[in-house]
């Protein structure tokens, strides 16, 4: 089982990739942020996960409104370190708990 530190580092890396995707989408500006689906990288703790997660820019921004929340593929939740905030057929938003939450907040600063 991965440690809280490893979980936070993996997810922070995936978050960085998704933040670059958001920057590119905003620069291009050709997609409606409310309805245009974007392929994000799953921000789960699994090393090597390459699952694509479809969400709108607005949905991703909701997930990122708090530094302890991450966008993951359905079924990619780890109940040892997170709780599900919301889920649908395309993605789940999870919130890190305990040390994993603290580390995620520290990484965001």
Number of strands: 5
- Average pLDDT confidence is 84
Biggest sheet, in brief? 3 strands, antiparallel
Compute the number of helices.
Answer: 3
Give a brief description.
This protein is an alpha+beta fold and 109 residues long. The protein contains 3 helices and 5 strands; from the N terminus they run αββαβββα. It has one domain (4-108).
Question: Could you explain the architecture of this structure?
Answer:
This protein is of the alpha+beta class. The chain has one domain. It is 39% helix and 23% strand. The strands form two sheets. A three-stranded antiparallel β-sheet has the order 3-5-4. A two-stranded antiparallel sheet has the order 1-2. A hairpin with a 4-residue loop joins strand 4 (82-87) and strand 5. The longest helix has 25 residues, at 4-28. It is globular, with a radius of gyration of 13 Å. It starts with a helix and ends with a helix.
Index terms:
globular, single chain, alpha+beta, two-stranded antiparallel ribbon, 109 residues
List the helices and strands and how they pair.
Elements: H1 4-28, E1 37-41, E2 52-56, H2 57-63, E3 69-72, E4 82-87, E5 92-96, H3 98-108
Antiparallel strand pairs: 1-2, 3-5, 4-5
Helix pairs in contact: 1-3
